[in-house]
Amino acid sequence: MAAQTGAAPRRVRRFFIALGTLCLLLTLFAALVLRGVVKLNTPSRADFPIWGVDVSHYQGEIDWEALAAQGVRFAFIKATEGSGHVDERFFANARGAAAAGIPAGGYHFFSFESAGETQAENFLAALRGQPLSLPCVVDLEFYGEFFDHPPDVEETRSELRVLLEALEEAAGQTPILYATQRSYRMYLEGAFDEYPLWLRDVYLWPALTLPGRDWTFWQYSDKGRLEGYEGEEEYIDLNVFGGGEEDFARWLEQA
User: Fold this and answer.
1) Which pairing describes strands 217-224 and 137-140: parallel, antiparallel, or unpaired?
2) Which residues are designated catalytic?
3) Of 17, 40, 118, 159, which has the most beta carbons under 10 Å away?
4) What is the chain's alpha carbon radius of gyration, rounded to the nearest angstrom?
5) Is the full-model pTM beyond 0.70?
6) 8 Å CB contact between 171 and 130
7) How does pLDDT run across 6-53, given as a tens digit for each residue?
8) What number of other Cβ atoms are within 10 A of residue 200's Cβ?
9) Dist. CA 23–CA 15, nearest whole Å
10) Largest alpha-carbon pair distance within the chain?
């Protein structure tokens, strides 16, 4: 009886040691995923041969020839935010990408605190005269206090619609919508299906995130590392186009 009584505490200790080890391993795995060391969703070049980047002033001065030499095939460059902000590196980046032969488009970070009309004016003023060959993009995602307190759906859709229609009328192109899974579900799903989608999901595949929804571009990593930029941000966002070489060529012609 004494031996059996002593065995129970040992089994309990072994259980908690095993549980603690498992928790430690899971924590380490999560940290490696968050740091970009372990990648759960990296698409293969065979399946998605057209890949590119998106950048802003956070990447600092960019050597676009160096990016092209590493296989970058397209780029989206931050142009504006809200009704008054212009990214300080936008014009240099737009010229640099064009000189390196990388098709590029400008993107606008949508503000929940600003009218769609004045956001369109700000964005269009920055785009005017720039050597861009891809359609413009509106980036709809949460920021600041809006993570916890999302703005009203109908009001946001209304201002977004004003912005998109102004862009389409002025540029003669259908803008692309960039969204996270959460912002897509809350504001875009069922209301803006006619717009090409650029989906951000750095953990899962689009087929799991938004099953049945077509996408044109997919931002699969915010922890990319390439040679050719030097700024306060050590990483660069990586993206793929949702098709092959012929699809991309046709899409560029139509854009």
Assistant:
1) unpaired
2) 141
3) 159
4) 22
5) yes
6) no
7) 666 776 666 666 565 555 544 554 444 455 454 567 899 999 999 999
8) 24
9) 12
10) 89
